[in-house]
């Protein structure tokens, strides 16, 4: 039997790869300039520990788009399998995920070798001109687990997912979160809980502690290799061909400036990190490792958000000082790389002087950075002598009255230059109203020196003073429902936190004062 040319048989189109298969294929695990290329001294390749019957708890459509796929694809069960650490196909040995080694100071004490005890890097995705690294937190034991089980629990994973996304939309540098995957696998903490994995996303997860590790072990070649990697990938301007300066000193300066800005960001929104160990400090100046964090409700300068921090080392008021202290640890780790242009006996003395000079830049950067943020929060477009005293007096009155941090600054926008007709919403947050009135009168006098109208000032203030932050009781409500497999509140709360500066009248309850039971909530390092 023969066919004429006009009676050709239909040819089937090649099947398109499933979206999750395409996503998996887009993850690069062996780029020559990626962190993983640094080699076995820096990391260990290993698969994730299988997590049974995983399910999707929440996903960030924003991050999904940045990675080049549609969040709707997450409804495919294969998505939960992949981001639980159970890919549909085995990774080749040379492309396995990886856990990195680092060391660090924990609560001010040298802790020695640490590392990704429950996190593994999947690799990088490049999309839209951006390269982002993906990391699974809670993916099982690694060589750096130090007798831990390598798991994260549902409550802490939801908190990290929500807060990392909330911080981004507040305009604060942070790692991001693609998704949370849950499982009914039991995990023992103070009580029996269930396991979860949160997928973190960032340009890099390199920490101060990575540098401390190689310094402490006198491995200068690896220390230089790591520093060169960070400079070449993220701070190339630190190494200029016709500049005789020291690229490693320039690196320290860049990290110092970014860390100062980050501390100012935290203080300005009342955010407490809770565990500012050097291994939890990002070399890119990102907020990283959301463990026992919290946003202050009733203002207390000595607020401690970490129940495990019995000495108050990481209290709210201490955060700038601790950021500065941590930079000294980083500088010490980089000392062997500094000053190749110096010779003879004077080298060490000159190197230390140069490093100290760079570190002093933290103070020069932090104070003006926080002052700018606070002037904006008070709607002061012009700079006047005494503005810093006005701000400090407000904090003193807030502290004495435990006035709600977020609502105080949000409601200041309702005050008016000419009279006290708009004072009530903020005034009612203070038990000692007379003390507030004294401050408010001085504030009104200061506002009278501004040329912008009350309406323009209010609009500007509302653009920097959030109405919605991730208060502990809001996260707790979402967690309690999620434990019953109801993830609607996780999604609803995430939606609210994506627009922290907008009014969102349909979500007014999310901006209210915390209920009485919220004062009993505690967070610690046991996640």
Tell me what the structure shows.
With 527 residues, the protein is an alpha+beta fold. It has 3 domains: 19-205, no CATH class; 209-340 and 347-375, no CATH class; 472-514, no CATH class. The protein has 16 helices and 12 strands. The strands form 4 sheets. Strands 2, 6, 7, 8, 9 and 10 form a 6-stranded antiparallel beta sheet that branches. The protein has a two-stranded antiparallel sheet with strand order 1-3. A hairpin with a 3-residue loop joins β9 and β10 (192-202).
Order of helices and strands: HEEHHEEEEEEHEEHHHEEHHHHHHHHH
**Tally of structural domains:** 3
Based on helices, strands and strand pairing, what is the structural class? alpha+beta
- The parts where pLDDT drops under 50 for at least 5 residues are 1-12
Which radius of gyration do the C-alpha atoms yield? 25 Å
- Beta-strand share of residues: 5-15%
Question: Share of helix among residues?
Answer: 25-40%
General shape: globular
Average pLDDT score = 92
Number of strands: 12
What is the rounded distance between the termini?
72 Å
Task: Describe the sheet with the most strands.
Answer: 6 strands, antiparallel
Instruction: Give me the number of helical elements.
Output: 16
Summarize the helices and strands and which ones pair or pack.
Layout: H1 19-26, E1 43-45, E2 55-59, H2 61-66, H3 77-83, E3 98-100, E4 103-106, E5 109-113, E6 119-127, E7 130-137, E8 152-153, H4 154-169, E9 176-188, E10 192-202, H5 208-216, H6 220-234, H7 247-269, E11 271-272, E12 294-295, H8 319-334, H9 347-377, H10 387-401, H11 405-412, H12 424-427, H13 433-447, H14 454-462, H15 472-482, H16 488-497
Antiparallel strand pairs: 1-3, 2-9, 4-5, 6-7, 7-10, 8-10, 9-10, 11-12
Helix pairs in contact: 4-15, 4-16, 5-6, 5-8, 7-8, 7-9, 8-9, 10-13, 15-16
């Amino acid at each position: 039997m023969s066919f004429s040319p006009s009676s050709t048989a239909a040819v089937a189109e090649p099947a398109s790869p499933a979206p999750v298969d395409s996503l998996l294929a887009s993850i690069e695990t062996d780029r020559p300039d990626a962190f993983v290329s640094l080699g076995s001294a820096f990391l260990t390749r290993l698969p994730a520990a299988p997590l049974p019957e995983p399910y999707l708890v929440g996903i960030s459509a924003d991050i999904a788009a940045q990675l080049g796929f549609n969040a709707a694809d997450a409804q495919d069960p294969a998505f939960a399998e992949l981001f639980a650490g159970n890919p549909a196909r085995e990774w080749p040995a040379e492309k396995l995920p990886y856990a990195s080694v680092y060391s660090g100071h924990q609560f001010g004490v040298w802790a020695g070798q640490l590392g990704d005890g429950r996190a593994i890097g999947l690799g990088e995705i490049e999309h839209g001109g951006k390269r982002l690294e993906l990391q699974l937190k809670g993916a099982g034991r690694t060589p750096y687990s130090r007798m831990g089980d390598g798991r994260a629990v549902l409550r802490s994973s939801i908190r990290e997912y929500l807060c990392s996304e909330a911080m981004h939309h507040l305009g604060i540098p942070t790692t991001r979160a693609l998704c949370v995957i849950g499982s009914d696998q039991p995990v023992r903490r103070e009580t029996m809980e269930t396991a979860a994995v949160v997928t973190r996303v960032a340009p890099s997860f390199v920490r101060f502690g990575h540098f401390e590790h190689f310094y402490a072990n006198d491995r200068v070649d690896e220390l230089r290799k790591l520093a060169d990697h960070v400079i070449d990938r993220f701070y190339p301007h630190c190494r200029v061909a016709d500049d005789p300066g020291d690229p490693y000193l320039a690196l320290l300066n860049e990290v110092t400036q970014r860390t100062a800005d980050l501390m100012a960001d935290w203080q300005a929104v009342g955010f407490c990190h809770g565990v500012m160990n050097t291994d939890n400090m990002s070399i890119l100046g990102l907020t990283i490792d959301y463990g026992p964090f919290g946003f202050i409700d009733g203002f207390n300068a000595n607020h401690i958000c970490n129940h495990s921090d019995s000495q108050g080392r990481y209290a709210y008021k201490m955060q700038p000082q601790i950021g500065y202290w941590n930079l000294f640890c980083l500088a010490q780790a980089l000392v062997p790389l500094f000053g190749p242009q110096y010779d003879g006996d004077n080298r060490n003395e000159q190197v230390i002087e140069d490093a100290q000079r760079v570190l002093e830049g933290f103070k020069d950067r932090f104070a003006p950075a926080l002052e700018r943020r606070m002037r904006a929060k008070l709607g002061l477009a012009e700079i006047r002598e005494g503005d810093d005293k006005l701000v400090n007096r407000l904090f003193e009155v807030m502290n004495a009255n435990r006035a709600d941090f977020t609502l105080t600054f949000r409601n200041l926008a309702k005050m008016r230059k000419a009279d006290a007709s708009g004072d009530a919403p903020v005034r009612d947050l203070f038990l000692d109203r007379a003390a507030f009135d004294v401050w408010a009168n001085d504030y009104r006098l200061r506002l009278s020196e501004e040329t912008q109208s009350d309406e323009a000032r209010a609009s500007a203030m509302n653009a920097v003073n959030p109405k919605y932050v991730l208060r502990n009781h809001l996260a707790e409500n979402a967690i309690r429902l999620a434990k019953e497999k109801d993830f609607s509140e996780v999604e609803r709360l995430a939606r609210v936190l994506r627009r922290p500066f907008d009014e969102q009248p349909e979500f007014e309850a999310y901006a209210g004062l915390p209920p009485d039971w919220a004062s009993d909530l505690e967070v610690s390092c046991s996640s």
